[in-house]
Amino acid sequence: MAVQPEQVLEDNLVTQLVTLGYQVAQITDEKSLLANLKQQLEKLNSLNSLSANEFKQILNALSKGSVFEKAKTLRDRLQINKDDGTALYIQFLADDWHKNQFQVTQQVTVEGRYQNRYDVTILVNGLPLVQIELKRRGLELKEAFNL
After folding, report:
1. What is the pLDDT of residues 40-97, one digit of tens each?
2. DSSP three-state, residue 29
3. CA distance 119 to 110
4. DSSP class per residue in 67-133
5. Are 122 and 17 in contact (CB under 8 A)?
6. Are 74 and 93 in contact (CB under 8 A)?
7. Which residues of 71-109 are buried (b: 16+ CB within 10 A; e: fewer)?
8. What is the pTM of this model?
């Protein structure tokens, strides 16, 4: 089996996703990831703009609970308090799948306990829901884990 550089594999995957209707998002770090999330949620929920306080409520809700509770949060509508005191309901995923915005990006670096860099990330309405780690062809699977 011929060896294929990882970057070629990445680029081919992104090209394939673009032909399926995904939009390429220029996201390199957590700051640009959050800015994109805010923009996509505003678009999905037909909002002019979320204030910093309103967006903070959304991020707090997304960071709470178990995996199952987080999945429920994504399926339901989240109630937050607007700056004027009224209730606002935020939808994360559209009821009709084709109303969702699908994006793809490459090489997102996120700082946490460790620095993680993801080869390809698939976003739905700005939410990074799928992270793909690619390894070049010709590499034994066991070797890929040891790199």
Report:
1. 999 999 999 999 999 999 999 999 999 999 999 999 999 999 999 999 999 999 999 9
2. strand
3. 12
4. HHHHHHHHHSEEEEE-TTS-EEEEESS-SSGGGSPEEEEEEEEEESSSEEEEEEEEEETTEEEEEE-
5. yes
6. yes
7. eebeeeebebeeeeeeebebbbbeeeeeebbbbbbbebe
8. 0.83
Q: Do 61 and 73 meet the contact criterion of CB atoms below 8 Å apart?
A: yes
Using alpha carbons only, give the angle 130, 136, 138 rounded to the nearest 5 degrees.
135
3-state DSSP assignment of residue 23: strand
Provide the β-strand partners of residue 116. Answer: 110
